[in-house]
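Q: My labmate handed me this sequence with no annotations at all. I'd like to see what the chain might look like in three dimensions before we decide whether it's worth expressing. Could you predict it?
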Amino acid sequence: MSVELQGLLPADYRDGSFIGRALAPEGPCVIAVREGELFDLTQDVATVSGAIARRSFAGGRSLGPVENGLPEGWSLLTPIDLQAVKASGVTFAISAIERVIEERARGDSARAAEIRASLEEKVGTIREVVPGSAEAMRLKDLLIEQGMWSQYLEVAIGPDAEIFSKSPVLSTVGAGAMVGVRSDSSWNNPEPEVVLVCDAHGEVVGATLGNDVNLRDFEGRSALLLSKAKDNNASCAIGPFIRLFDDGFTIDDVRQANVDLHILGPEGYVLEGSNDMRQISRDPLDLVEQCLSEHHYPDGFVLFCGTLFAPVQDRDAPGAGFTHKVGDVVTISSRRLGKLTNTVTTSRDAPPWTMGIGAFIRNLASRGLIDRI
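A: Here is what I predict for the chain of 373 residues:
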């Protein structure tokens, strides 16, 4: 049975250009969608990273119209391979407030509602300032005087954005895969985000969708647990495809994007939310510049832009807020980028990550593709 693609792509997919990856019986392949047709580019360029570096998106072997889906025996992969996976946090005012709540609650979801009520009144004005501005620095001084300052407010309104490494190279999962939360986490949530795709020079060549799975209890106990809260097996989903920038889709479309979230629980629970990029505190290109900064990513990088989504609705016990259950179906969608759907399991029970860099290179070598990386 072929994998259906048409429902994953945006409605205007025939007007755009897309690149991604699929797993064929012989190994990972680079695929592209142009003018409604699916192509296998692997014999021309064997990695998405290389295709972006060389702007090699044309040509390839036709696999037929998109509505036919992937060939029999193929499955969809995350659309990135050798790129570094970076993320920016606390880029929306409401997410900054929620991070401070986690910090003050010490990761205890039962204390969150009470803290939220008092904190919103005292630091809600951060929505109105430009990060790094003189006004932001005056607000910082005031909040310090009031004993309300936090490391999260520093990255929310200070000059430097929070940029961190989300996931190792080749560890992300794609549309349709299981997405993992740690088995010992009791307060966690999805984070629906726009993901910018950049070449080695920091030029943004396209965008896709991502789920930066977040463990609020771990990070809330200590910001030094960020890597444990963020980087676990199957904890980073990206897809379905990278939409390449062209005359009809640009960075301005990213700036105006709305990312919708729908969660369907195994017990029938439904939660909906959205991430409005128009409310972001820092321009996406500023985040890219801060990510590159005094570093180098020779195989390119992707950058999660952050989210304003932070669910506060109670799922079970009053005051306990939202947390995932195994079997939750998470759908992240955006009008110009398509749909990313994953089912929640634990990172312990998710399929193990086995194709690292070594295995990937060995596979390409066995297929005679090393010189096409």
